[in-house]
DNA sequence: ATAAATTTTTAGACTAGACTAAAAATAGTT
DNA sequence: AACTATTTTTAGTCTAGTCTAAAAATTTAT
């Protein structure tokens, strides 16, 4: 499998959002910052290889074999992210780009040894679950901070959009995985919130609260 | 820089053997398991980029810029080998293939953090020196075991041909970096030797003794 | 110094992956 | 239902990197 093939499989994995929904060529092309015609080419190739179920004009989804391959890439990506943050002290906003390369290293043995070295983590630095060798993920029920009622106490479990600027902003405010968040106020007209996070009071926009996953205590 | 370009630069680095000797296209092609015509193509390209000094029919050698790039790849290769052996407990015969991939990961920050994480090692698991950020290597004077006189006591400092089968064989015999070797006997007709290594007596062929670097005590 | 053998380069073809432009299919609108 | 707008596919082109076969240069041998 080439790097390009792997990137397409991974994109399909993320876009189908676990409910093996059909993905259109434009969605796929947008995600990979390429053109729909290129996506069509690749989908036809991956269909030939039985990694993708693709029907002209109707979109594509991963085959079970394709999903397994994709989950292995995601597994590697997230394990390397843990390595970079836990062992090399990178910030969570710096690791995605590097993991994007490391995920393509081919060595099953390496993955398992890395996993063990890291203490078999179940989530990556952004709160996303790490698939096991078989591609299974333990899904932790989490809800959006935006949907929490006033007075509720929660713990920050994940970031929806792991954009580097967004992650940097969160770090600056001292917002990180495991932070305790209590909703103090919610403005009905623009859904902005006043929250207490690890003791300090913060005012946050709707954009922010819809990109943060929390777990109710 | 593409992966292929990097592999060509690295091959030139190793073949020119520090004395910036001219390297022929066939040598280069053999090393990279490709054809001379492919090597010619790439040399012309790298010459265009001023990374290689190449003159038709006369061979090629690295420019100072090219040598610097090459040394950075070698640096990465060897640092990753240290990581794999020291942190992930791989055997020294297993790491070359994986490092061959890892050496192409692009992130200067990663290299420096990895270096620090590993305690800034100066040699890799096969006894080869790790170039610093500027491409400088600390050359430790070592000689071939084959050239040692009878009765001399030495320490194993490196392996010349890091072929996986050879490394596995050495491990099986308990031969590793740092082992104390005393030459007990030398047969004049075929240069085979009887040695004492870490207490045990071993009979070794010329092939073996010409692939082991030692330092005299 | 010529001729033969070897090495090196060129020319032409191939694949993976991407792109543009045009054609075909689908979806949306009157 | 027919027309329009959008999406998707096809056709053709491009680059990187490889290969084979042929041509050119160099080296070796006579
Ligand atoms: Mn990737
Ligand atoms: Mn992540
Ligand atoms: Mn390599
Ligand atoms: Mn090595």
**Oligomeric composition of the shown chains:** homodimer
Order of helices and strands of chain A: HHHEEHHHEEHEEEHE
Broad shape of chain A? globular
Structural class of chain A: alpha+beta
Q: Proportion of β residues of chain A?
A: 15-25%
- What compounds sit in this structure? manganese (II) ion
What's the CATH architecture name of the domain at 143-216 in chain A? Roll
Main interface by residue count: A-B, 18 and 18 residues
Query: Quick one: CATH class of the domain at 143-216 in chain A?
Result: Mainly Beta
Instruction: Tell me the number of strands of chain A.
Output: 8
The CATH topology annotation of the domain at 143-216 in chain A reads as SH3 type barrels
Please give a structural write-up.
2 copies of one chain form a homodimer. The longest helix of chain A has 24 residues, at 64-87. By secondary structure, chain A is of the alpha+beta class. Chain A starts with a helix and ends with a strand. In chain A, 41% of the residues lie in helices and 18% in strands. Among the domains of chain A are: 3-62, Arc Repressor Mutant, subunit A (Orthogonal Bundle), CATH 1.10.10.10; 143-216, SH3 type barrels. A 6-stranded antiparallel beta sheet of chain A has the order 3-8-4-5-6-7. In chain A, strands 1-2 form a two-stranded antiparallel ribbon. Chain A has helices at residues 3-15, 25-31, 36-48, 64-87, 95-102, 108-117, 164-172, 206-209, and strands spanning 52-55, 59-62, 143-144, 153-159, 180-186, 193-197, 200-204, 212-216. Chain A binds chain B through residues 84, 87-90, 94, 97-98, 101-102, 105-107, 109-110, 113-114, 117, and chain B through 84, 87-90, 94, 97-98, 101-102, 105-107, 109-110, 113-114, 117. The complex binds manganese (II) ion (MN) (4 copies). One manganese (II) ion (MN) binds next to loops of chain B. The structure holds a DNA duplex (30 and 30 nucleotides).
């Amino acid at each position: 499998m080439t790097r390009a093939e792997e990137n397409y499989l991974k994109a399909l994995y993320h876009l189908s959002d676990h409910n093996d929904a059909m993905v259109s060529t434009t969605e796929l092309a947008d995600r990979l910052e390429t053109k729909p015609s290129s996506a069509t080419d690749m989908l036809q190739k991956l269909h030939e290889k039985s990694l993708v179920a693709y029907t002209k004009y109707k979109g594509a989804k991963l085959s079970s074999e394709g999903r397994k391959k994709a989950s292995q890439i995601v597994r590697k990506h997230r394990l390397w992210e843990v390595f970079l943050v836990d062992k090399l002290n990178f910030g969570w906003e710096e690791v995605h780009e590097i993991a994007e390369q490391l995920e393509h290293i081919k060595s099953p043995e390496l993955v398992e040894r890395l996993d063990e070295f890291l203490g078999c983590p179940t989530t990556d630095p952004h709160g996303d679950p790490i698939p096991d060798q078989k591609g299974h993920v333990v899904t932790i029920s989490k809800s959006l901070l935006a949907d929490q009622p006033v007075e509720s106490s929660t713990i920050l479990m994940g970031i929806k959009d792991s954009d580097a600027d967004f992650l940097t902003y969160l770090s600056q405010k001292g917002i990180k995985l495991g932070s305790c968040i209590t909703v103090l106020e919610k403005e009905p007209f623009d859904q902005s919130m006043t929250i207490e996070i690890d003791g300090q009071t913060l005012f946050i926009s709707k954009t922010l609260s819809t990109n943060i996953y929390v777990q109710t205590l």
